Amino acid sequence: MRRKNVFLSLIAAIMVVMVTITGCGKKDEEPVSTTLELPTTTNLQSGVVDNRPNKVASFSEAEFSTEGFLYTSGQTAEYYVFVTNNSQATVSVNGNATAQDNSGNAMGLSSASIDVLGPNETSVMVFSFRDIDTPKSVDYSLSYEVSKYYKPIISNLTISQHLNENNVTLLVKNNGEYTADFVQAYVLFCDASGNVVDRKWTYVTNNSSCINPGETIAEQFDCSDSYNSVIVGLKGRSDGNSADTTKQADASVLVTKELTYDSGFNTIYYIPAYNASDTALSVWANAVAKDSANNVIGASSMSIEVLGPKETSIGKFSFHNVGEVDHIEYTLNASVASYFCPVVKHLEVEPSLYNNNLMVSITNHGSVAAEFVEAYALIENQDGEVVGSEWTYIIDGNSQIAPGATESNQFNIKQPFDHIDIYLVARGEGSNNTAEFECNGIMRVTRDDTAQISIDSEQYNSTQVKQSAAESEPEKTESPSTPAGLRSEFKAAMDAYEAFFDEYCEFMEAYKENPTNLSLLSNYADMLVKLDDVQKKFDAWKDSDLNSVEMKYYLEVSARIEKKLLDLV
User: Fold this and answer.
1) Within 10 Å of residue 518's Cβ, how many Cβ atoms?
2) Which one of 69, 201, 249, 469 counts the least CB within 10 Å of its CB?
């Protein structure tokens, strides 16, 4: 049942994104401000006799306090209830709510919960109502029981709020000794009268779906309207685990440079990364954007799922609704790759230029299929400044380049350029991926005065990278990409599902930049067909028995997808 609920929440998130995008510019879908009468008391469940151990039979109303806030937009209403635990017990909270019209008639029903709430902690639950007119009031009842499954974590989290003209950026730090798992942040934007004019929420976690002890994660929350103040709430839990240090790697082995490009819609920081170690790594980073006065004005995250020994790949931070970015601050985090094996080193890039079309063919010389191969073309002038950027998937109908196969795609280059750097991002399943051909994952295309192109396959990222490559040792055999406890077919279905939504999110970003592009609308139809295929593979697992390792991976994938979709809204 839990897996089914997660699945349904993902579908709901997709619908929210689609409705938000297609509804832009329609006045009747703008947030509606109201001065509704809100209840000041709740009906607490009482009279329950519970003889089970580690349970509290009942709680008095005085042991908990609540405050409710209503948000409406079109035919959607959301009621946010902030619950404060004034007792000495660690509890879980369940609630039911009824939206009512002026006559007290029920308009809609909703339920919500809080996994764990410790003494003196405040968290939030959201009652969502769809396809109803603006309710006059919301009546709700809450029930409490002692939590024996999770440890409370809210009291260990501190929040730094940075209010900007078009967004609020939160920095959430874990001051405790346990990981804070699946932390969610809710931001309510209010006008001068205290009415909610917009709301946003997302997961505030690293690539392991948690905040490690001592770690700080930044997230940006955009507001579609002007606001006077904000109300912030957190949800989260802990299993009582410390940070897993067994797979951490020395991030100093990654040699990077920053390449900045202002698209007019986003400020993008491209981060090429080189792995000078002899171990396949997974790379993740969370960044804050700052203005010239060193104020925090935005946040973004990047990841490279697998970066093989002596490989170069690329990640990017994308900042929107932040104003002028002076600089960014981030730390690269590297861990031993657990789920995928490196394949970039076995991909041969063959570019050709005809007028403004840069055609790129990629041949897989390895023994393992290269999945979800992305090519990034950074268009640079003589000074090495990025004056344009393009990206595309170069894959077959199965979202891969099979061993021995060649796949092609093209870029349309509109800007004058001195050279174009092509970076690859890809991953593979399995191990022992060896071949005679080795590419480091980056290719340079140059054009002289006669408009001819030449290819330079030398590692040119930095002097340090060249030196590291020259001193490298023979490649070591990679460990299997499927960890113990994960069935390969299960993992393949989960990864295909996540990869599809990576592609979907990239598409929607492009569509938001240029909603009149007819070719993008045509591509959307193809995307719906692909969704049907990956959805069927995903559905096949929802009623199966998953072990604890598979369930953990399932929840991590679900959380990452939901976060990506919510970032689009």
Assistant:
1) 7
2) 469
